[in-house]
Write a structure and sequence with these properties.
Distance between the termini of chain B: 61 Å
Order of helices and strands of chain B: HHH
CATH class of one domain in chain A: Mainly Alpha
Oligomer: heterodimer
Radius of gyration of chain A: 28 Å
CATH topology of chain B: Helix Hairpins
Shape of chain B: elongated
Number of helices of chain B: 3
Largest interface: A-B, 90 and 73 residues
CATH class of chain B: Mainly Alpha
Number of strands of chain B: 0
CATH architecture of chain B: Orthogonal Bundle
Largest sheet of chain B: none
Shape of chain A: extended
CATH superfamily of one domain in chain A: NADH-ubiquinone/plastoquinone oxidoreductase chain 6, subunit NuoJ
Largest sheet of chain A: none
Structural class of chain B: mainly alpha
Chain lengths: ~190, ~100
């Protein structure tokens, strides 16, 4: 009963924050609402006996990714969102898609009734960091290595995307080229005069 | 007494729906990015709920993978957004219409 109340508290907070994220015009308010979603989901992970995932959720999502997003928002100094003007039909498309997805959600709600009602009581081992770590380096070694390569690619891609070819350098190259041509011209002139 | 599995799935579906609708409603590239993060989180909740109710650690392992992919996506996606802002001085996705006509 007590965990039911806690679940509905966190679930309501998560849904309210998610709606607020879509509704807010200011990107910074959206980002802070999204942090609220992450924190309440982390609380739900704790209730699901997954403390490692809960900690990683806070560390990676609320700690790293959202700090990056807020940093970019501050860096670009964005205005508030303008309302849709050209693509008004997107409101209808989005509403229809949302209704379809919600219908599917409630279909799942009724279809999963056959699933085990109560959690199987092996939570002493499953959610712990040790079981996750041993699974990661024995049975699922290949996916972990693929994720490592993916992170390396992301680092290289990020550096290449954000690198700036600065105009001064370009001017320098052009100036060097022009000077070289001038010298050659002088040489030619000298040759002609000679 | 704990909440049953289907109620976690219902919460996950509602969050996913909000994220998907947000991607369509928002014209701001950063807003769309955050909506995608919300959808990834909804899927993570499904993984963890199934992992709990079938007492299998695989779901939590794949949540870890999804988080790594989300971090990589954040690095590359924000790089693309900054590069776009440099060229257009806006991150409205309607301005990314240089291939039109």
């Amino acid at each position: 009963m007590f965990s039911d109340i806690l679940f509905f508290l966190f679930a309501g907070f998560a849904i309210a924050c998610a709606v607020s994220m879509v509704y807010q015009k200011n990107p910074l308010y959206s980002a802070i609402s999204l942090v609220g979603v992450f924190i309440s989901l982390s609380c739900i992970y704790v209730m699901l006996a997954a403390p490692f995932i809960a900690a990683v959720q806070i560390l990676i999502y609320a700690g790293a990714i959202m700090v990056l997003v807020v940093f970019v928002i501050m860096l670009l100094n964005l205005d508030e969102d303008a309302p849709l003007n050209r693509l008004r039909y997107l409101y209808a498309v989005g509403g229809g898609l949302g209704l379809i997805l919600l219908a599917q959600t409630f279909f799942i709600y009724y279809a999963v009734m056959k699933a085990p009602k109560q959690a199987i009581d092996q939570t002493e081992t499953v959610g712990k960091t040790m079981s996750i770590g041993s699974g990661m380096y024995t049975e699922y070694l290949l996916p972990v290595e693929i994720v490592g390569v993916l992170l390396l690619l992301a680092i290289i891609g990020g550096v290449i995307l954000v690198r700036r070819f600065e105009p001064p350098q370009l001017e320098l190259v052009v100036n060097n080229e022009l000077e070289a041509r001038d010298k050659e011209d002088e040489k030619d002139d000298y040759r002609v005069a000679f | 007494m704990e909440p049953s599995l289907e109620i976690y799935l219902a919460l996950s579906g509602i969050l996913f729906t909000i994220g998907a609708v947000g991607v369509i409603f928002k014209r701001n590239a950063l807003g769309m990015f955050m909506c995608i993060e919300l959808m990834l989180n909804a899927v993570n909740l499904t993984f963890v709920a199934f992992s709990r109710y079938y007492a299998d650690v695989t779901g939590q392992l794949f949540v870890f993978m999804v988080m790594s992919v989300a971090a990589a996506e954040a690095a590359v996606g924000l790089g693309i957004i900054i590069a776009f802002f440099r060229n257009r001085l806006s991150i409205d996705v309607d301005d990314a219409s240089i291939l039109k006509n």
